[in-house]
Design brief:
The complex is a heterodimer of chains A (386) and B (450).
Chain A (H helix, E strand, L loop, with lengths): L11 H25 L4 H6 L9 E8 L7 E3 L2 E7 L2 E2 L2 E2 L4 E6 L8 E2 L3 E3 L5 E4 L4 E6 L10 E8 L6 H8 L1 H38 L5 H11 L8 H11 L5 H25 L3 H9 L4 H12 L1 H17 L2 H7 L9 H8 L7 H30 L6
Antiparallel strand pairs in A: 1-11, 2-3, 3-10, 4-5, 6-7, 6-11, 8-9, 9-10
Chain B lengths: L1 H23 L15 H4 L7 E6 L4 H17 L2 E6 L3 H11 L5 E4 L2 H9 L8 H10 L3 H8 E3 L5 E3 L2 E7 L2 E4 L1 H7 L7 H13 L17 H14 L2 H8 L8 H14 L33 E3 L19 E4 L11 E11 L4 H10 L2 H8 L19 H11 L3 E4 L1 H4 L2 H16 L4 H15 L1
Parallel strand pairs in B: 1-2, 1-3, 10-11
Antiparallel strand pairs in B: 3-10, 4-5, 6-10, 7-8, 7-9
The chains are: A alpha+beta (386), B alpha/beta (450).
Chain lengths: 386, 450
């Protein structure tokens, strides 16, 4: 009785559970990236993002104020202040458990103890970071004493990375330019292949001509050709016919590289449309062009939309084709991906910028995805379900 | 009336143009210790309307620095100078040159690739004048000429590359206050350095932070170690023979240098995280161990660019400092220094490109970057008072005080070795493979390339 259609399988919970696990697995790295984008470079280097949400026990190297701040109290020279205050800005509250004055023994003293540093004076550190450094002789030198503390610090997040990527004057202009350049590349590079592929797909699906099967086989074969093979010959060709590096070249390259998949996907969908409608139209005297425009195109909308999403995402995220066919050495035609790579610095390693840029550049594709997602699923099933 | 309007408009245009230029020019012409006079001859060159494209490996802050230097060239000559940087410079310049859309000037991070491009006819010779100039005005001038001289398409030697901006690699970074707390002294010789290493272990500390990780280039920091050791165990002639493969890679003298590196890197007690962590630690994260509490290590051998990866707010000179990676006292090989540098070459000839090479010969071009950050130069005429801080000056003194200067050997070897099997071989060696075996494998890969 279990397998009768319409009754619920008793294993639904297993399905739900595995869906939840899979979704969790998929989202896990993204959450890590999101958390990292709110942390500073030093935080990323010292602890994992999963620790960022909780108060953490940290070993910190802090410094007292410089000798220039000292005041005289009777026969004593005194420097007072709070260790957590940096350049006048207090850091979030932290509680010190143990501390030390030498890198050799960072947990030598309890809170409230006084450390005798010989001729460098005596220092007392309180739980909240307040300290009092006193000496019988005048403090000398330009820098304060180092104090090593073990402290529990609350979670700390910063918006500075986003500020750096989006609003920093040195790259704000570049980012804005890159954003519009990317749109200039992606929109035509999405529309042109769809236009070409729709015609081709109709011909391959519904028009009888010799060699049709061979052509379809060739298109399928082209799916497996890696585009890297064509980079240099194609760029040479562009230079020879005079379009050089620029938007036109980038559109053509994206169109060429996207066409095999587009034709294959659309043809499979169009072949699945009911034969009766098309034959009826032919009997009524419709030309191929009229059938294509009035019947096939409206019916193929889900497939067209899903390919558009694919092509848009791939051109949006593309760096390779842009570097080869678009970005020339004047630097005017930079795109988002290139701009993000530049933010990483000469030797890379600015993880906080990478994480932040990833979320900035993900915004537009996410928007496109959520607006058009119902077509994506329908289009993905193109030809597989009748 | 009309004339007045015109003049007004011209004044507005002029002032906005100047405001724009100033934004990219951090130093006011005529002020400070800079050799502003050296710019005078270039002011006679009128390049207005010419576009000059420069393509190089620098991004981020370095890009801002190079653009600020180029701005002065643009200001003097009127040329429209555009710089673009890329982290995949090595691949992109080849693609662009092959396809015929090369920039006017390319800045190569290593001579190997430039030599390769020259032999395929993609570079324009700089002329004998430039060669003479380098010989006279650079410290160890002849070696800089040799490094920039390659065979062209027909097999004739010519000067193609002009060195501008060099890095010193023979440096050990440390935290002076940590040394003070523990009572350590800066070692003056390799013997002392090894004794200090042992001393630290006896005191229960870990002396070194070594990290070889660098994504696809993992292993390169170890090649610098081996090259430095080569210069400290053998005379420079043997180093040259090794780099040009006149002696095989598995020569006992080379194997000895590799094992010298192993003395430091393959001892669990000497390296933070143990010998197993050497290959997997990223070179950018490795120096952070110096600054942790308690310190994970006390010393870190790396080139002059590494302060960029120190924790935020670290003051070089106070919070962190360097000492020269010393040579063996008993071997009497002087003060060898290992370095690297970027060379500028003309990939698409025009007047502006040649004028730019002339500009790079002025002391001013060097001083402008010296006064900012991360720039060292062998130019003897550049005023070292313009260095932004004393540490930079001290770094440059290491360069100028070298008795032997040798260029990073892995950059001079063929790409398949110097940026391939040498890197991977060093990762294998750090992982515990025998030095002789590793060297033989590298030699085999070299033979396969011939």
């Amino acid at each position: 009785m279990d397998n009768i259609a319409g009754t619920k399988s008793s294993l639904t919970w297993a399905v739900h559970l595995s869906v939840i696990i899979l979704v969790g697995l998929w989202l896990f790295p993204t959450v890590g990236l999101l958390v990292s984008s709110f942390r500073t470079a030093d935080q990323i280097a010292t602890s994992g993002w999963w620790r960022a949400m909780f108060p953490a026990e940290q070993n910190l190297v802090l410094r007292t104020a410089a000798p220039a701040e000292q005041v005289q109290e009777g026969g004593l020279y005194v420097i007072e202040g709070n260790l957590f205050v940096e350049d006048g800005n207090p850091r979030p509250e932290a509680t010190i458990s143990v501390w030390g004055t030498s890198s050799r023994d960072v947990a030598a003293y309890e809170v409230g103890d006084t450390a005798d540093m010989g001729e460098d004076g005596r220092i007392t550190v309180a739980e909240n970071g307040d300290y009092r450094l006193e000496n019988d002789t005048e403090f000398e030198g330009r820098r304060g004493e180092r104090v090593f503390v073990t402290a529990k610090t609350p979670p700390e997040f910063t918006l500075r990375n986003y500020q750096n990527v989006l609003f920093d004057p040195s790259n704000r202009e570049g980012m804005a330019k890159a954003f519009f350049n990317t749109l200039t590349v992606t929109i035509p590079a999405t529309i042109i292949p769809i236009l070409v592929a729709a015609f081709a797909a109709y011909a391959l699906a519904w028009m009888d001509f010799p060699g049709r099967a061979l052509l379809i086989a060739a298109v399928v074969a082209l799916l497996v050709v890696p585009l890297q093979l064509a980079l240099i010959p194609l760029l040479k060709f562009h230079n020879e016919i005079g379009i050089g590096k620029g938007y036109l070249g980038a559109w053509m390259a994206h169109t060429g590289f996207g066409l095999p998949l587009a034709i294959y996907l659309l043809r499979n969908y169009m072949v699945g449309l009911p034969r009766d409608i098309i034959e009826n139209a032919k009997v009524d005297g419709a030309t191929d062009f009229q059938i294509f425009i009035k019947i096939i195109l409206p019916l193929s909308f889900p497939a067209l939309a899903s390919f558009a999403i694919f092509q848009f995402l791939w051109t949006w995220n593309d760096l390779l084709v842009a570097l080869v066919f678009l970005i020339d050495s004047t630097g005017e035609t930079t795109v988002m991906t290139k701009q993000i790579v530049e933010l990483l610095g000469t030797r890379g390693g600015n993880w906080e910028i990478l994480a932040t840029s990833a979320f900035v550049s993900i915004a537009v594709p996410l928007l496109v995805f959520f607006v058009m997602q119902k077509y994506l699923v329908r289009g993905l099933l193109a030809g597989s379900v009748k | 009336m009309n004339r007045l309007l015109f003049a007004g408009a011209a004044a507005v245009a002029l002032s906005t143009g100047m405001a724009q230029a100033e934004a990219h020019m951090p130093f006011t012409p005529g002020e400070g210790d800079f050799s502003w006079d050296s710019l005078e001859p270039l002011k006679g060159v009128d390049l207005s309307g010419q576009q000059l494209t420069v393509f190089g490996p620098w991004l981020g802050p370095d890009q801002a620095f190079v653009e600020s230097v180029l701005a002065y060239f643009a200001d003097a000559t009127g040329a429209d100078v555009r710089y673009t940087g890329s982290d995949s410079f090595e691949q992109q310049i080849v693609v662009d040159a092959e396809a015929g859309s090369a920039p006017n000037v390319a800045v190569f991070p290593q001579p190997g690739l430039a030599s390769d491009m020259a032999s395929r006819g993609f570079l324009t010779p700089l002329g004998d004048d430039t060669g003479e100039w380098v010989k006279e005005n650079y410290a160890a001038g002849q070696s800089w000429v040799d490094l920039g001289t390659y065979k062209d398409k027909d097999g004739n030697d010519d000067l193609f590359g002009f060195f501008y901006k060099v890095d010193v690699k023979s440096l050990v970074w440390y935290v002076p206050e940590n040394f003070e707390d523990a009572g350590y002294e800066v070692p003056e010789s390799m013997e002392e350095l090894k004794a200090l290493t042992k001393q630290m272990v006896e005191d229960g500390e870990t002396p070194w932070c070594i990290g070889l990780g660098s994504g696809g280039a993992t292993g390169w920091p170890a090649t610098d170690w081996v090259e430095d050791m080569m210069l400290r165990t053998q005379p420079p002639e043997v180093y040259d023979q090794w780099v040009s493969n006149e002696i095989p890679f598995d020569d006992p003298r080379v194997v000895e240098a590799i094992e010298e590196f192993g003395w430091f890197a393959r001892n669990d007690d000497y390296v933070a995280g143990g010998a197993g962590a050497v290959a997997s630690t990223d070179f950018r994260d490795s120096p952070k161990g110096l600054f942790s509490s308690p310190p994970q290590c006390y010393m870190h051998r790396q080139a002059s660019f590494i302060p960029a990866f120190f924790p935020e707010g670290t003051m070089v000179g106070a919070d962190a400092d360097f000492f020269y990676f010393p040579a063996y006292e008993e071997k009497d090989l002087g003060k060898p220094v290992l370095g690297a540098g970027t060379l500028w070459a003309i990939t698409d000839e025009n007047d502006a490109a040649h004028a730019l090479i002339d500009f790079l010969q002025t002391p001013l071009a060097h001083e402008l970057w010296m006064a900012q950050s991360g720039f060292l130069t062998p130019h003897k005429g550049a005023n070292t008072d313009t260095f932004a801080d004393p540490t930079q000056k001290a770094l440059n003194d290491v360069l100028l005080g070298a008795t032997t200067f040798r260029f990073d050997g892995s950059d001079l070897m063929p790409g398949g070795v110097g940026a391939g099997s040498f890197w991977t071989g060093m990762v294998d060696y750090a992982g515990g493979k025998d030095a002789g075996e590793v060297a033989t494998a590298i030699q085999n890969s070299w033979d396969a390339l011939k």
